[in-house]
């Protein structure tokens, strides 16, 4: 085989490989896994927002460049989203899944209300365990304070922006 033919075949194989990669990304579906996220007109966190998408919303992938996906919503809005705000599996919004897990682990020990409160702080069973184990009250109180502390989406976005984290990383 001549050198020219080998180069030609190598180039065709490369193009075929690139085509396969593009076709894998194009047409893929992803779901929003953040509480909400912005679709932007460019691949930076400073680009203008063209739409806001919500948790669990299905997005059609148009293409991927680095950590950014160009996507289209069911309503037809198209823009860029940071890839870590998406997932390939449909996320569950079941707030009771942690409570159900706790309830299953404790079996008859936990009533539905007890397991549900256990996901938000020390429930009665956990409190009794902490007391039996000698965990000081100040630590138990600290856990309860942390469990009710709320950070808004705006505060998280500001933290990420100021720290150059996530989609704000350079």
What's the topology here?
Elements: H1 3-25, E1 29-32, E2 36-40, E3 49-54, E4 58-65, E5 68-73, E6 78-82, E7 86-87, H2 97-106, H3 112-118, H4 124-132, H5 137-148, H6 153-163
Brief summary:
With 170 residues, this protein is an alpha+beta fold. It has helices at residues 3-25, 97-106, 112-118, 124-132, 137-148, 153-163, and strands at 29-32, 36-40, 49-54, 58-65, 68-73, 78-82, 86-87. The longest helix has 23 residues, at 3-25.
Find the CATH superfamily of the largest domain. Answer: SH3 Domains
**CATH third-level topology of the largest domain:** SH3 type barrels
Shape from CA axes?
elongated
Number of domains: 2
- How much helix, percentage-wise, in residues? 40-55%
Structure description:
It is a single chain. With 170 residues, the protein is of the alpha+beta class. It folds into 2 domains: 25-92, SH3 type barrels, CATH 2.30.30; 97-159, no CATH class. The chain is 42% helix and 21% strand. The chain has 6 helices and 7 strands. The strands form 2 sheets. A 5-stranded antiparallel β-sheet has the order 6-5-4-1-7, with no helix packed on it. A hairpin with a 2-residue loop joins strand 4 and strand 5 (68-73). Helix 2 (97-106) packs across helix 3.
């Amino acid at each position: 085989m001549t050198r020219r033919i080998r180069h030609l075949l190598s180039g065709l194989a490369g193009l075929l490989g690139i085509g396969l990669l593009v076709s894998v990304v194009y047409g893929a579906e992803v779901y929003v896994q953040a509480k909400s996220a912005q679709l932007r007109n460019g691949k930076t966190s400073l680009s203008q927002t063209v739409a806001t998408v919500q948790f669990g919303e299905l997005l059609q992938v148009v293409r991927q460049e680095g950590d950014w996906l160009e996507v289209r919503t069911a309503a037809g809005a198209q823009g860029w989203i940071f890839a870590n705000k998406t997932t390939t599996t449909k996320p569950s919004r079941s707030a009771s899944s942690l409570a159900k897990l706790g309830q299953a682990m404790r079996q008859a020990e936990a009533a539905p209300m007890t397991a549900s409160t256990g996901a938000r702080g020390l429930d009665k069973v956990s409190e009794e365990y902490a007391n039996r184990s000698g965990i000081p009250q100040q630590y138990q109180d600290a856990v309860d304070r942390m469990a009710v502390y709320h950070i808004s989406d705006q505060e998280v976005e500001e933290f990420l922006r100021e720290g150059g984290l996530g989609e704000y990383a350079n």
